[in-house]
Amino acid sequence: MFPLGHMGVGLKLAAPFDADLPKRPLLLGTLLPDLIDKPLYYGLSAWTGRVGAQLGLVAGTRSFGHTLVFTAALAALARARRSRAWAALALGAATHLVLDALSDAFTRGVGFSMRALLWPLLGWQFPAYSYRNWHDHLHHVGEPFLLGAEIAGGLFLLLEWRRTWTLTEGRTGPRAPRESRRSSRAAAP
Fold it and tell me: DSSP code of 127?
């Protein structure tokens, strides 16, 4: 999946669990596995001139950041530090893993995600990609499931922005905080 899908749909997936966690770390968490693994793979590929399985352990864009081990470590750190920001980061990363598994079920098959997700239980080798660069990777955004996820994610983000903007701008509409509505009624002649 791509950024809008991960952020927007991830935000919706996290909603029942977020318990007023801070949104910025949550949104960062929805992208964190890709922010770690994609530069790692493409950097190694550019540096060595190799792609996919030729690279060895990091054979694709789903490696360390796409594991349950990584997400569990974030959650453990959040608990140890009693940090809502770290908890939000862990929750966002968990939504990323769920969405990648769902995406793979539609595009590559469920087993593909499981090799990274359950690393190292299914072996030390991460799943191999043959993408040579970002350009090759971006060609997949046209796949129907991925395109639909990007559109849905963009719409969810737009709706969240609108809801947040309405609350923070002190509007007196139905979603405004009670204090705003009271103060605007009291100020009316």
Answer: P
